DNA sequence: TAGCAGAAACTTACACCGTAAGAATGGAGT
DNA sequence: ACTCCATTCTTACGGTGTAAGTTTCTGCTA
């Protein structure tokens, strides 16, 4: 590691800081992320980061934003009248991006995303849904329900997020201690794996929601 | 405030510590909750709390558990074959309890709840659903989908959780800065309030999900 | 009633955190 | 060559969770 004195450029940028933060989060987990450690990962003192980010909260908010951007960068526009497959893809892409960066998941759940970028995305979704013939209020409902369900479900799926690891065993880890007499159904689930397929569960629930909303629109 | 020397009883108990923590969380928010402050609220030094709780994480996990318990303490058993209204009540009670204690919401989303109490509740739901004629795997799916959607939706509804307040403005606070040319649909939503009714959105989505699952069972 | 064991509380200490304030350095423009 | 300024580092402060050790009170036994 080359020594650097005060003033010598480290070649940082806002972009680079966020990249490094996302990397650090993915590999070490949220509780381990501190300004000092992130600085160290970039070969820089903690305070240097404050040239690129006003404070840690803003950094975390930015990470959520960035993952959302990753998730939807390639999303096409819906064909007229054909918004259901479009929203389905929306849901699955969001889940995929969140699972790819589980470190930001607790942040995605907690922090309202109202950055300009996020607003632009919302606007685009609403426009797409309207173009496909969905009334505005309903479009807002659908987008929000899909998004909140996806976040909630993926939070549960990711279970203990990295860094929180080991502090709480998940259901499978507890299989041994489970008294079959007291918990016959849970025991059976662990034995048969019935109802433990997150992939299937998510897909099915999304389809139910979309079909339900589509039926509402047909009738109206 | 009466002085107390080492050894003099403060009359604490595990129960009391959790009660105080929940109160503190509800009124000051998660980021403000520290062992020292919670101790102060109980008239005790921080380290005293470690007689009742192994560490802070366990305290937080316990709070989630407690809110879940509050939510479902009065839930009846489902009538045979009539699980839909039962699950609907389950969802609405969960949402109500979470909104009543918004401080634990970010925890509820993040932490897997696998305490003995939580397992007992899961077991009861599964038993109830089976008694109403739902296959085990599907019962597991339904319960989890309802729970994760409720948590996700309520997280968004609570928006910035107390303590996180003001760090991120919500959509309404931004109404002024919104450029109607760039965000015509968002602007219209703020003006007409279409699609901003969380209550209606939640109720409708839950009903769609339950009807969808019920239809699956009918056909099968 | 005296003494003692254990519980319950306090005290001290450590390593770490976010970040405010200011000093130091290097490179770019004149 | 000299100035200016962006970039980085240094120092410092008040806060955090919690390990370790100390003090005091309470209740039991002799």
TrEMBL record, chains A, B:
Domain HTH tetR-type: 11-71
Region (Disordered): 157-178
Segments forming a coiled coil: none
Keywords associated with the record: DNA-binding, Repressor, Transcription, Transcription regulation
InterPro entries: Homeodomain-like_sf, HTH-type_TetR-like_transc_reg, HTH_TetR, Repressor_TetR_C, Tet_transcr_reg_TetR, Tet_transcr_reg_TetR-rel_C_sf
The keyword Transmembrane is assigned to this record: no
Pfam families found in the cross-reference section: TetR_C_1 (PF02909), TetR_N (PF00440)
The entry's DNA-binding region: 34-53
Transcription regulation among keywords: yes
Superkingdom assignment: Bacteria
Bias (Basic and acidic residues): 165-177
Protein name listed in UniProt: TetR family transcriptional regulator
Protein source organism: Asanoa iriomotensis
């Amino acid at each position: 590691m080359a020594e650097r004195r005060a003033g010598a450029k480290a070649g940082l940028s806002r972009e680079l800081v966020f990249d490094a933060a996302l990397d650090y989060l993915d590999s070490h987990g949220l509780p381990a992320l501190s300004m000092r450690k992130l600085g160290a990962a970039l070969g820089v003192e903690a305070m240097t980061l404050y040239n690129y980010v006003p404070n840690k909260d803003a950094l975390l908010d930015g990470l959520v934003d960035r993952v959302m951007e990753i998730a939807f960068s390639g999303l096409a526009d819906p064909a007229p009248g054909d918004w259901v497959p479009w929203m389905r893809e929306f849901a699955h892409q969001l889940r995929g991006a969140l699972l790819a960066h589980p470190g930001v998941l607790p942040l995605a759940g907690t922090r309202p995303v109202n950055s300009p970028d996020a607003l632009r995305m919302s606007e685009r979704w609403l426009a797409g849904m309207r173009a496909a013939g969905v009334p505005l209020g309903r479009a807002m409902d659908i987008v929000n329900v899909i998004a909140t369900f996806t976040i909630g479900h993926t939070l549960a799926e990711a279970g203990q997020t990295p860094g929180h690891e080991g502090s709480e065993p998940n259901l499978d880890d507890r299989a041994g201690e489970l008294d079959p007499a007291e918990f016959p159904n849970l025991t059976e689930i662990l034995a048969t794996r019935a109802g433990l397929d997150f992939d299937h569960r998510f897909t099915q629930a999304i389809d139910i929601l979309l079909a339900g909303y589509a039926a509402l629109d047909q009738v109206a």
